[in-house]
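Handoff note, outgoing to incoming analyst
You'll be picking up this chain. Sequence as last confirmed:
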Amino acid sequence: MKKYGVCEKACIGKGSTAVVRLYHKVDEKGSEEKLYAIKKFRKRARNESHKEYVKKLTSEFCISSTLHHPNIVETVDLVHDDNQNYCTVMEYCPGGDLYNIIKNGQMTSVEKYCCFKQLIRGIAYLHSMGVAHRDIKPENLLLDNAGRLKITDFGVSDVFRMCWESEKQSHLSKGLCGSEPYIAPEEFEEDEYDAAAVDIWACGIVLYCMIFQGIPFKVARADDTNYRHYLDTRKHKSYEPFERLPAKCRELMYRIVDPDVRKRITVQAIMNNEWFKSIEVCNDGEGNRCEHHHLVNAVNKTKH
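Most recent structure output, in case you need it:
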């Protein structure tokens, strides 16, 4: 409390491993208030060793605290509270998560594509740092007051390449993780997989959610009827939802949501795509004030 202020009783986020609350810190003069989102982790499980527990918490902090980008939530500190619970201190994003903004149903096409471009920019930065998120979904995408999208929650992220390694030395990842509608098909089929490609698939599903206000299928497995329909129709480029998209966007979506990981487009190739480059977006790469404020409207609609 001395360092980060007073806690609000109501939580602003809740998951299986942690609860997030808002903290207010007023400076000594009482003229300026700083807001922090503080994530308090669950206590150690009975069947979990202290070493395993601490490793999970510190690995998330070690990854997230090294990431500094306009489209990544800034991690400030790792502290103990008065009850000796581990807490991660992060910047507060008052716009809430993208899931609620999508559910609100008032985003324009410009806003949807703007969000997508910011998401890809954040993912491109992560992958350049050798980090894969592995749980990209609307609930893990927040918006700040300026309508800037930020990726959060690195609880299952993985380092697939160390800073001294080349791209050819990237490691494969293990373990099924994430939320089923956003998990790439290879995670269900292979013991090891390219975690960067998994992020790309999830970004495509997020864009689908923004455009159509729903998921294309519950799970990318052959026993899902809607997924089988997607596989059957994409062979002939006749998947109905994609066919309703602008031509250049449609072409890119087929390449992003490609079940063949060897053919799936990379984040750098998306960044170089002509349609993607044409998307109107806040030009805040250097921390400058946004040139376009269309996403602020979406944030305000959700707040009210």
